[in-house]
Design brief:
The chain is mainly beta and about 400 residues long. Helices cover about 10% and strands about 55% of the residues. The protein has three helices and 20 strands. The strands form two sheets. A twelve-stranded antiparallel barrel has the order 3-6-7-9-10-11-12-13-14-17-18-20. A hairpin with a 4-residue loop joins strand 6 and strand 7. Helix 2 packs antiparallel against helix 3.
Amino acid sequence: MAPSLAGRRPGPNRHVLAWLTCAALLVARPTFGQTMTDVLSFLLTNRSIATDDFVRDVAAAAATRDAISTFLLTELGTLPVSSSAGGFTYRLEPALGTTLRSSASFGPFFTERSLTVGARQVSLGLGFRHARFVDIDGRNLRDGTLVATASRLQSERDPFDTETLALDLSTDTMSLQANVGVTDRLDVGAVLPFIRLRLDGERVDTYRGRRAIQALASGTTSGFGDVVVRAKYNVVRRGASGVAFGAEAKLPTGDEQNLLGSGTTTISPSAIFSLERARAAVHGTVGYSVGGVSRETHVLGAGTFVATPRLTLVGELVGRRLASVGRLVQTTAPHPTLANVLTLRLSTADQATTRLVALAGLKWNLNSTWLLNLNVLRPLTDAGLTSSWTPAITIDRSFGR
């Protein structure tokens, strides 16, 4: 029969020995040359709490690692790129035999508009976004309160032994984008992202108020992410208003082990709607994605206002419904050898999640066909990895007028 701990506090046992091991400053560190996936695995599996259930420990650690990796790839899927129409859109005026601006607005950021850039028009852009993640599924990611494993008596509310994680995770994404007007109604384009990812982590064991570091790990990686190729066809045009259909493919060019790419191809068809007047406009995009980290339905809406001929103000909402990314949960199971002791583990539950992001910014015509895009992004839901305010900047240049 397993020893009972009910009604008394655990005496010197394997938990004390684990704490003394940490207190001796035998802090584990990952070896040189490991991938970012290895760094995450190291932080999640280097445990001192003796749960006596190796299989469950490994499964929970792997599930948590995969969830964090998937959350990160999901956030990297929202790249700081302008819509495929670019800032300047043109149309051929047969009566004059020349091209004219088809809209006074420079358009939204992420939401597509039905207009295309125009035949033989080329738009190039360079964008940058910095994101520092502070929460994961509503739990603080950085302050050391994220519980990975814990043990508590059934008769008590608080654990007597707790292992916690603190992760400082940030990304810098630079994207080069190009868009070409094949005809007055057809655009094709591509986006090449370059990503720098940094991770610093700490795992701490707290036994009856005594705190000791178990593991420290850090890693930095950089490289190209998943390349995006896309096309859009304008089927209905009434002035600057209309309807278009688009398609986008993300190719698995990023390093999956270093969390720079999903490892699979993602295909995303979409329908695009625009209603534009002299100074104000609304735009909407509805699409679906297959492949990648999860099947996804996305709905985007934007409003633009032409403040001056050289300045457009933009507000947007981006909604994403992911079918199988899941959420972090805390599971509880009886200790296999100690009676009246429960083991708590951080793991995942497979469920659909919804993410909503608000975006506000401006597009300013600096000179000729140079366009400066400034925006700031703010998550409105707590699903997945979330940052606070995330700024982005893009410079666009149009050619072929």
